[in-house]
């Protein structure tokens, strides 16, 4: 191994099922941690994803999302080196399988202990080589908890207006939203967040509207619930094919009884996505029609896009719910084991 390249990258592996904002925040923290290490060239994060079969062996059930769906999603997290997404890495992290191949010095993970099917620490081999770094786990969100909502339908009892208003008053949530809006360097501002109108700024972005000549506003009925490869494929098409090099602003509805993810979870997932340059929360009709706002293209329905050769158009929040409910016994047993541990 060329030691000049060895000290340039960090490694973060996992299941990344649902790819919720807790995962995104872990990747951001890994990026920030890597920024504090004296790398000689590339301060980038490589992501390893476990195969569906490895997850089944060690967790007792297949992930909700397939490996292809999970890889596609994680590649659009703003702090991920897109060419550094590695499939089929072992559940028990081995330095000689993936990590060293990618010239990564450090392996990072959250502060929650992860064990294999035999109860052994999955990062034992990394720890004993002193190449393990810990990032703080994001409280308040987990794949287990999201699955539990679907199994019990508890999300249908949520007061979405209350959640929205609470978010606007919660300084910690606003601070987290600002962090998750950071640029790919993990430290500077990037993604704008507005509330109802473009002159009501919640999070100041890092790019200037007046310098842009291709701003697209996507404002359809799409809720971006359990943000997934089906959603991202649409945004990818807009940004990389239909309107190349555009700045993409997303209109985000507060939500209704069909949304498994609450308002803040959907917002946090969007602002941490590399395809998203801004989010307008709960856009008013007047604002959409405001001629003083410089918007070059407005998309109100996906039929305007004429997407062909779609890989993930089958994937919706309803499909995700059905996957879980059709395997109810398995997921209930897995969740009970996780919650009891």
UniProtKB/TrEMBL annotation:
Pathway per its UniProt entry is: Phospholipid metabolism; phosphatidylethanolamine biosynthesis; phosphatidylethanolamine from ethanolamine: step 2/3; Lipid metabolism
Name the GO cellular-component terms.
cytoplasm
Per UniProt, what is one Pfam family of this protein?
CTP_transf_like
What residue stretches are annotated with the Cytidyltransferase-like domain? 12-149
What SUPFAM superfamilies does this protein's entry cite?
Answer: Nucleotidylyl transferase
**Which EC number(s) does the record attach to this protein?**
2.7.7.14
Q: Which InterPro entries match?
A: Cyt_trans-like, Ect1/PCYT2, Rossmann-like_a/b/a_fold
**Gene3D superfamilies in UniProt:** HUPs
* Molecular function as annotated in GO: ethanolamine-phosphate cytidylyltransferase activity
Task: List, in alphabetical order, the GO biological process terms annotated in this UniProt record.
Answer: phosphatidylethanolamine biosynthetic process
Superkingdom to which the source organism belongs: Eukaryota
Would you indicate the residue range of the signal peptide? none
Reply yes or no: does the keyword DNA damage apply: no
The UniProt keyword set, sorted, is: Lipid biosynthesis, Lipid metabolism, Nucleotidyltransferase, Phospholipid biosynthesis, Phospholipid metabolism, Transferase
Q: Does the keyword Nucleotidyltransferase apply?
A: yes
Entry's family note? Belongs to the cytidylyltransferase family.
Name this polypeptide is given: ethanolamine-phosphate cytidylyltransferase
The organism of origin for this protein:
Hanseniaspora valbyensis NRRL Y-1626
Lineage in the entry?
A: Eukaryota, Fungi, Dikarya, Ascomycota, Saccharomycotina
